[in-house]
């Protein structure tokens, strides 16, 4: 019984940590309401998180933010990802060639996690952040990965609309994924952000399983529908070269 209670407490503490990650600057009352817990329970659960520097609570305002301990964990995690080092050269080469923002993501079902970003400083900066997550169904990087995942994983997705262009019908999404497999790259045509287009291609690991994706993103005024057709093969080529460096023989 004690072990079960400890497990439940751990899950609730991790839920609180996730709420603060998504909404930094929550007060005790706001955090308790978001988690559906009493304020006394939140206080009890956050004490060890604060002690471990995973959370920080402002002494003056009482608001919670992520602590620097999460940065250490994140850096340790990223250090184990050879993908970032392997893809760095291709990411910078692709950005120099197309002069748009390049993203590198990994799959964390039902999301993608942005692990690297190379920006063209002369352009309007994209709002994405390293460490942030995005949905599989509405991002080009997500669809590039989803197209090579088992069919049953698609059924688990909640196809929430992000913009009026988001594909929310499962059959239409299946048809889109089949098209992605045929041409080798995916397109987010204002499906995740209203004024942004993105072109992405899948990256395969040494098991020839899809594990990541690389993309080019920009405002629709710069990445027109016609330019998408030019960018697609360039992004796909970069993804193939990264995949080969990871030991893949599938492409």
TrEMBL record:
Residues 7-68 form the HTH iclR-type domain. Coiled coil: none annotated. GO terms for molecular function: DNA binding; DNA-binding transcription factor activity. Residues 17-42 form the HTH cro/C1-type domain. The keyword Electron transport does not apply. It comes from the Bacteria. GO terms for biological process: negative regulation of DNA-templated transcription. This is DNA-binding IclR family transcriptional regulator. InterPro entries: Cro/C1-type_HTH, GAF-like_dom_sf, HTH_MetabolicPath_Reg, Tscrpt_reg_IclR_C, Tscrpt_reg_IclR_N, WH-like_DNA-bd_sf, WH_DNA-bd_sf. Keywords: DNA-binding, Transcription, Transcription regulation. Residues 69-248 form the IclR-ED domain.
